[in-house]
């Protein structure tokens, strides 16, 4: 067994680097650590993502999706609606709370949830 002591970052392919940087900054308060011509590393506390600009691709299946726990689910939904973020699914009840799925500018799926 390999013992993982941490994760450096998660790669997220994006078709529009600048729009994606702004999305993750505005929606989740990520900070830009480094930025190059075709990539950027953003951080939120100790969690890091690496946005990598790629050619547009078939969007019928998401390339990546990840889940984020939020402290105020209703406020999060209101903020997404105010910023005209495309909601893909939800909000809906789960067996332990509520979830909502939306997409970033490159159609990567992001799920937020609130556990009761």
Per CATH, the superfamily is 2,3-Dihydroxybiphenyl 1,2-Dioxygenase, domain 1
CATH architecture verdict? Roll
Portion in strands: 35-45%
Shape assignment: globular
Sheet having the most strands: 4 strands, mixed
Q: Low-confidence parts lasting 5 or more residues at pLDDT below 50?
A: none
Give the N-to-C terminal Cα separation: 33 Å
Structural class: alpha/beta
Mean pLDDT over the residues: 85
How much helical structure, as a percent, in the residues?
10-25%
Q: Give the strand order, joined by hyphens, for the main sheet.
A: 1-4-3-2
Assign the CATH class: Alpha Beta
Number of strands: 8
By DSSP (H or I, 4+ residues per run), the number of helices equals 2
The H-and-E topology, N to C, reads as: EHEEEEHEEE
CATH-defined fold name: 2,3-Dihydroxybiphenyl 1,2-Dioxygenase, domain 1
How large, in whole angstroms, is the Cα Rg?
A: 15 Å
Number of domains: 1
Detailed description of the structure:
By secondary structure, the protein is of the alpha/beta class. The protein has a single domain (10-115), classed as 2,3-Dihydroxybiphenyl 1,2-Dioxygenase, domain 1 (Roll). The protein contains two helices and eight strands; from the N terminus they run βαββββαβββ. The chain has helices at residues 17-28, 73-82; strands spanning 10-14, 31-35, 39-44, 47-53, 65-69, 87-93, 97-103, 109-115. The strands form two sheets. A four-stranded mixed sheet has the order 1-4-3-2, covered by helices on one side. A four-stranded mixed sheet has the order 5-8-7-6, covered by helices on one side. The longest helix has 12 residues, at 17-28. It starts with 9 loop residues before the first strand and ends with a strand. The mean pLDDT is 85.
């Amino acid at each position: 067994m390999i013992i993982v002591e941490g994760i450096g970052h998660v790669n997220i392919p994006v078709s529009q680097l600048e729009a994606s940087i702004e999305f993750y900054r505005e929606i989740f308060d990520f900070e830009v650590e480094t930025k190059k011509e075709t990539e950027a590393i953003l951080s939120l506390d100790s969690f890091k993502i690496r946005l990598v600009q790629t050619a547009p691709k078939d969007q019928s299946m998401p390339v990546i999706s990840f889940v984020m726990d939020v402290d105020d689910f209703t406020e999060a939904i209101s903020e997404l609606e105010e910023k005209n973020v495309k909601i893909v699914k939800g909000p809906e009840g789960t067996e332990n709370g509520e979830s909502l799925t939306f997409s970033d500018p490159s159609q990567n799926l992001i799920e937020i949830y609130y556990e009761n």
